[in-house]
Amino acid sequence: MSTKNREWLSWIKVIVISAIIALGIRTFLFTPIIVDGPSMLPTLENGDHLIVNKLNYQIGEPERFDIVVFHATQKRDYIKRVIGLPGEHIAYRNETLYVNGTPVEEPFIQERVESLQEGSHYTHDFTLEDLPGEYEKIPEGYVLVLGDNRMNSTDSRMIGLIPVDQIVGEAQLTYWPLSHFEWKT
């Protein structure tokens, strides 16, 4: 085999191995997603580009306030925030989240709630029993999710609890536009 052919073969090997590694990373570890819609305002804006960590939930469980991407339908993924975890009862009263009867602060929407005009609602009152499925507690293997833009979000209030096995991963990095660059914690 000539030197030129060996060089071409070497380049082809590098390209194939690189493609396999990239495919493996995208399939098992990280994947990009683009925010489509206003349901996560003010945290995420329409058109924000994110990196979703798929590994977190292969070795652990979602935690309260994680921003997750999940399969809402066979053709569409949604991005929302985990509010309720297995074994919990969730209720909203007077703009306050209650987990098992205990008030829990939501700092990511606090500014919007404080700016409401009198008589307005950011999150309408509801209990877990009001949601599809009429559960008294969130069952094992499910979470309750809400968009941060509570007045314009299709979330657990409409579609019910989300099976954990439908979660793609946790949104961990906004990388575009650069003015929105941020690690999510």
Automatic annotation (TrEMBL):
Coiled coil: none annotated. It is a single-pass type II membrane protein. Residues 9-176 form the Peptidase S26 domain. It is found in: Cell membrane; Membrane. Keywords: Hydrolase, Membrane, Protease, Transmembrane, Transmembrane helix. It comes from the Bacteria. It is an enzyme of class 3 (hydrolase). Its EC number is 3.4.21.89. It catalyses: Cleavage of hydrophobic, N-terminal signal or leader sequences from secreted and periplasmic proteins. The chain crosses the membrane at residues 12-35. NCBIfam families: sigpep_I_bact (TIGR02227). Belongs to the peptidase S26 family. This is Signal peptidase I. It comes from Salinibacillus aidingensis.
